[in-house]
Amino acid sequence: MEPIADPPLPRTIDDITPEWLTSALATGGVLTGALVTSVEIERIGLMDGFMGVIARLTPQYDAPTDDLPSTLIAKLPDADPVQRSAQSSAFTTEAGYYSTFPGDDSTVHPRCYFVGSDPNGDDYAFLIEDLSNGRSASMIRHMPLNDAATVFRTLAGLHAKRWNASQLDRLSWAVDGRTREAWAPAQELYEATWDEFSDKWGGYFSTEIFEIAERLKTSIVDVLTVPAGSPVTLTHGDTRPENMFFSDENPNRDLALIDWQRATIQPGAWDLAYFVEFSLDPDDRRSAERELLRSYMDRLKTDGVVDFTTEELHTDYRRDLLTPLIRMIPTGSRIDPDLPQVKDVVQTMLSRLDALADW
């Protein structure tokens, strides 16, 4: 499926009409002769930290619908011009991902029915499989260890498919973590927001974790640029629970990941460390972490990755446990500590950073 700009792309969800949806689904090969006669649009995901505008579409067709999606998800950039421009690179990455890997019921990502991008502007539109029948998760709640085992197993399968693959060098849309330029914006944003974050939330850190976080102000590029010769794969890049849907009924896909806007070429341990620190109760993590890492290694070997050792995994994982800080500090600097329940949520999140001290 190639990214396309014809039919004209909607700039807001209110621009999604039955005629546009018919054309988009026909272009994506979903509709062959049928028409969308009406569409109900429901804005969703407002408080879940997603970039852009997300809506659930419920179309009605003029033909039998057994093989047609009864609901689907539309994803567009924000209408605000400043936000839209800032989101352009992330939407380019996601458009590239879904164009390269459109998906089916056995892939770790949902089906993508339509990928639209305007090469001369910042208009994008995706139509994606609705996974709401699956079990969702939240970083505010600790994830059960049986689900964590599913995540590690699934990520190992995802990473093994593109482990040191020559294809990686052709994925121009992916963030390339092997280059220093990939991490420079994160360094700049972290430095710019550190003082405000520290004033608001520094007292919630242990002394050891605070010192680690403070040192990152000037070392993100050096720490995260992938060393030459290190094994790499294509990672999801944002493995927080909100991007996960578990299925207890689909034997071909027990976990699907959404939101591929940070797909990055780098060691697979990024996805593991990011997931652990955004998901697991600290005591659960301590009791199961080594076994989860062993299960990841076992799946890699089963899927043909033989030139990677447990010691290398642990080295990558230890470094990548720093990565949640890169997102927490800029985000936390914008949060008002006086909002109801905010302090409890922040304390939950920061308690998980004890993994840095444990390793």
Return Rg in Å.
Answer: 21 Å
Q: What is the count of helical runs?
A: 13
* Shape annotation: globular
What is the C-level CATH assignment of the largest domain?
Answer: Alpha Beta
Distance between the termini: 43 Å
Strand arrangement, major sheet = 1-2-3-5-4
Largest sheet: 5 strands, antiparallel
Quaternary: single chain
Low-pLDDT regions: none
Give, in order, the helices and strands: HEEEHHEEEHEHHHEEEEHHHHHH
In CATH, the architecture of the largest domain is Alpha-Beta Complex
Structural class: alpha+beta
Helix amount: 40-55%
Compute the number of structural domains.
2
Q: What is the CATH superfamily label of the largest domain? A: Aminoglycoside phosphotransferase (APH), C-terminal lobe
Average pLDDT reading: 93
How many β-strand runs?
11
What does this molecule look like?
The protein is of the alpha+beta class and 359 residues long. It is 41% helix and 14% strand. A 5-stranded antiparallel sheet has the order 1-2-3-5-4, sandwiched between helices. A 3-stranded antiparallel sheet has the order 6-9-10, covered by helices on one side. The protein has a 3-stranded mixed sheet with strand order 7-11-8. A hairpin with a 6-residue loop joins strand 4 and strand 5. It is globular, with a radius of gyration of 21 Å.
